[in-house]
Amino acid sequence: MTANDVDLTPPLSVLLRRLPDPTATDQVTYLEAELAGRFEAANAVAVSSGTAALHTALVAAGIRPGDEVLVPALSVPMSVAPIVHAGATPVFVDSAPGSYDVDHEDLAAKITPRTRGVEAVHLWGRAGDPDRLARFAADHDLALIEDACQAHGSRHDGQLLGTFGDAGCFSLRDGKILWSGEGGFILTHDETTAAISRGLRTHWQSPITPPPHLVGYNYRLAEPLAAIARANLARFDDLLAQRRHQTQRLHHQLAGVTRLHVAEQHEGWNGHAPILRLDVPRPRELNQRLAARGVPNSVGTYGLIACDQRPVFGPPVGPPCRNAAAMIDHTLAVVLTEHNTDHDIDRYAQIITEEIRSWPNT
Ligand SMILES: Cc1ncc(COP(=O)(O)O)c(C=O)c1O
């Protein structure tokens, strides 16, 4: 079977004949067992989105209104919104100079008596140093939640991302390597975190007694979407190999283009998005120009900026996270899906090469 053939097992048509059934959970139950096995965690809890996964995991890990959660400025709004949904305050941490990884000195400097958690954000599927973050969280008695929404299948020193913290949160939205249209899941080694997450996602209509102070949500994953997720999970190795191939192909095509550098080449990396460093003046404009010419990318298409610069997350506290902002501005991260052919990738490479060669030096 190729990566583009989906085998819906059991067939979606059979499932649809059994629905509607508000008590149906078969597909979700099977999916959770399969996810736990495939992603090497004791428990998987399926939910309706990556955002829901993060919100649920933060609350299940003990984050409460008034708490502070440390989170990289190099992240997307969907990483940060769940902290606000939990009633907590995001405290933004800068990147290390010239790096996509958090600045560990800044991280330590931003702890206050209200700090209760750290959220690692594995943007573009990159790892950073999750071991170091886990040690930091343990030393300071903080919950560690991983935003692994783009990191399906990425490993650090052989260990899958999403399994380093108290909980790892994944998205199943279209465009992720593993997808079901919409959806998400939480991985956790901790039985209590899993049980609370299961209660929260369905207004406590689950076997465990609800802690009375926690209001539940409807964050259930719909059964037909769970069936699609199962079908895609069955071909996950192909999907992962395909994304790595696409990313490596683009990197390879662009090798040797001046003022452009491949920024990530890690063996355990899932290759979620080709990541290139633009050494040009006005790199954001170049990203926008590439988006306009049909090369979808994080900055030009989705307007990625450092999250401490987004007014919706409150007035800036302390100096801006300048390293994160500079890294984002100079990064061309190309957005891929499984439908991008070699021809598409080669066209992207051609457009990027043309644009960067003609881009003025001032
Ligand atoms: C890094 C990151 N975090 C969180 C999310 C939120 O996931 P979802 O769109 O499934 O809610 C996404 C997905 O777009 C993401 O890429």
| N-end to C-end Cα span | 50 Å
Oligomer: single chain
Number of strands: 12
Q: Calculate Rg over CA atoms.
A: 20 Å
Helix and strand sequence? HHEHEHEHEHEEEEEHHHEEHHEH
Q: Approximately how much beta-strand content do the residues carry?
A: 5-15%
Structural class: alpha/beta
Q: What is the percent of helical residues?
A: 25-40%
Low-confidence stretches: none
Shape: globular
Number of helices: 12
The biggest sheet amounts to: 7 strands, mixed
Strand order of the largest sheet: 1-9-8-5-4-2-3
Question: Which molecules are bound besides the chains?
Answer: pyridoxal-5'-phosphate
Mean pLDDT: 94
Write a brief structural summary.
The chain is an alpha/beta fold and 362 residues long. It has twelve helices and twelve strands. The strands form three sheets. Strands 1-9-8-5-4-2-3 form a seven-stranded mixed sheet, with helices on both faces.
Describe this entry's structure for a reader.
With 362 residues, the chain is α/β, with parallel strands linked by helices. Helices cover 37% and strands 14% of the residues. It contains twelve helices and twelve strands. It has helices spanning 12-18, 26-38, 50-60, 77-85, 104-109, 130-139, 191-201, 223-234, 236-254, 283-292, 322-329, 342-358; strands at 43-47, 68-72, 89-93, 115-121, 143-147, 155-156, 159-160, 167-171, 184-188, 260-262, 275-278, 331-333. Strands 1-9-8-5-4-2-3 form a seven-stranded mixed sheet, sandwiched between helices. It is globular and about 65 Å long. The mean pLDDT is 94.
